[in-house]
Amino acid sequence: MNDFTNDHSQGNLDHVELPPEELFNLLSDRAVFGLDEAESEQLEELLQANSWVRADCLDETAAELATAFERAEPMPAAIADRIRNGVHDEIADAIPAPLAFPLQDESPAASGPSTGWLGWVAAAAAIALAVIAWQPEAPGVRNSSQLVSWVDNHPDAVRWDWAPGLVNPAEGVTGYVTFSPESQEGYMLIKGLEPNDPRIQQYQLWIWDQEREPDPANPSPLAADVHPVDGGVFDVNDRGEVVVPIKLPLRVDTPYLFAVTVERPGGVVKSDKSSVPLIAGPPASDA
Amino acid sequence: MTGFTLNYGSRAHQSPDSPSRTATLQSPPARTRRASNIGVNVETMEEPILERVARNEPGAVDEMMSRFGGLVWSLARRSCPTSAEAEDAVQEIFVEIWRTASRFDSSIAGEATFVAMITRRRLIDRTRRRSRRPESVALTESSPAPEPNNDHLEIAEEAGVASEAFEKLRPEQQKVLRLAIHHGRSHEQIAATTGMPLGTVKTHARRGLIRLRQLLEGSGLQGLSATGTLGGAS
To answer: Which pLDDT does position A95 carry in this prediction?
Structure first.
């Protein structure tokens, strides 16, 4: 008797594919002893393959037991004061931290209808955190005018318009992504994308590189053995126009598809593609 | 499946009135359910604080620290070799709780459990980072069975149910989980202390924890199943 079954398949439990025992071993080990990096990666993969299993289930049980064991002793007053001050300082440092660069001469798109596709609250923008995975030390492009100049100066750069993605598509978003294989630099110009609360979720960019395909002449982005390059996570805290720089950990020589997914804070190694609001690729005439 | 008993398919054959099915399908709001277990309406006594923290309401962070400071401090003191390190850890933990408060779901766990979960994760991370350093806390197996914490009603209630469930585990499972969770011992240390092989230590911990979850679900304390939305405070 237990409740490790999927609430969404109540009427069909006999046909639920059982997750591997290793998944629960790792969840238990994490809850009790912690995991090393390799184990964490393995757990991540297993969770993605068994997305109906709640990742926190055994952490909660261990926490219940910890509260049962513990006889809480009051914190010494002096320590409590220092901690309280320290916590408030850290929170103050974290609010606000603009992560993209809203244009001064553009009206925010907040007056338009909310897409509501993720249910993210607009208030989140006010408490955006500085948790972006990468941020330019000295951004050279901060608005669409500068970006036009940048594209002009990088004739090798691709420049493709955003289109709604395949899962939870973001409607009404405009802008484009541009990337120069020569300089390995690029930018995303995005207007109208729902602001995110980085404490809950972040956007993550993925780039498919033809050179990394098993068959470069016939790229197939959805094939199981094709892995896009992680373009890093980013946040949008303004529904107006924002310019987000792209910096890659790996070289991309022949990009043929860009996609933005929604992931947990910090991003993931491999996306389950459960939310892909934006994609960008060559127009049909170029493909 | 081998090894432990996870009856994935069996629920389809359970009576609709069986406790676990009722707990899963009908999950009332967790706080109300827990309150009814002890005949006290907790909700009238203390307003949930984490939702207010998530909304950045003035004073909410202070109240959260006041409410859960003792629990977090005690867990940190037990895990950290020095008071100074515990102080650092507690500050880090409360900032993390502030960051993740919006993920709290009262239909899944109580606030104390959520706070303890974040706390334990941070403390485990810290312990693993300093794992090469010598131990400074004496290892003991003679600690008593967990006693409910009476400093705070919600914590006490959650702890009481968990304590009862813990007593139903096999002795070797109790021993391993007590050493791991109460004393913060690694599985290597537990193996060295008890003479159990490493694999046996992990097996007892795994089976004990899963059994504990089953017992808590039966009690209604952990109201929702292990399934649902992925992720959480990790």
So the answer is: 63
> How many residues are given for chain B?
234
Closest CA to A159 of A259, A287, A283: A283
Residues of B in contact with A6 (CB under 8 A): 225, 227
Just give the CATH number of B27-132+142-219. 1.10.1740.10
- φ/ψ of A242, rounded to 5, equals -130, 150
Tokens of A211: 């050179």
Domain ranges of chain A: 7-69, 109-280
| DSSP alpha helix (H) spans, A102-257 | 144-152
CA angle A226, A231, A233 (to 5 degrees): 125
Instruction: Output the pLDDT for position B234.
Output: 31
Mean pLDDT of the A40-59 span: 84
Percent of chain A scored above 90 by pLDDT?
26
Q: Is the pLDDT of residue B222 over 80?
A: no
Distance CA A207, CA A35 (A): 30
What is the token pair recorded at A24? 């629960």
**pLDDT greater than 60 at residue B2:** no
Comparison of pLDDT for B230 and A265, the residue scoring more: A265
On whether the pTM is more than 0.90, the answer is no
Q: Which residues 53-82 of A are in CB contact (within 8 Å) with B?
A: 53-75, 79-80, 82
Exposure string (b/e) for B121-134, b if CB count within 10 Å is 16 or more? Answer: bbbbebbeeeeeee
| Alpha-carbon gap, residue A227 to A153, rounded angstroms | 30
Pairwise CA distance, residues B146 & A68, whole Å = 5
The amino acid that residue B178 corresponds to is: R
CB A157 within 8 A of CB A170: no
User: DSSP assignment, residue B106?
Assistant: T
Contact, B75 vs B68, CB < 8 A? no
Q: Which two tokens stand for residue A146?
A: 């500068």
For domain A109-280, the question of CATH label 1.25.40 is answered with no
Neighbour count for residue A15 (Cβ, 10 Å):
9
Between CA A278 and CA A258 the distance in angstroms is 8
Query: Does residue B22 surpass a pLDDT of 70?
Result: no
Residues of chain B with Cβ-Cβ distance to A122 below 8 Å are: none
Residues in chain A, overall count: 287
- The model's pLDDT over B204-220, given as tens digits with 9 standing for 90+, comes to 999 999 999 988 877 65
Helices B83-100, A77-94: crossing angle, 10 deg rounding: 40
ipTM of the complex: 0.70
Tell me whether the omega of the peptide bond preceding residue A113 falls within 30 degrees of 0, making it cis: no
Q: How far is CA B90 from the centre of its chain?
A: 17
CB-CB under 8 Å, B10 with A87 = no
**Which residues on B lie below 8 Å from A264 (Cβ)?**
231, 234
A128 contacts A99 by C-beta, under 8 angstroms: yes
User: Is A70 within 8 Å of B147 when comparing Cβ atoms?
Assistant: no
Number of H helices and E strands in chain B, helices first, is 11, 0
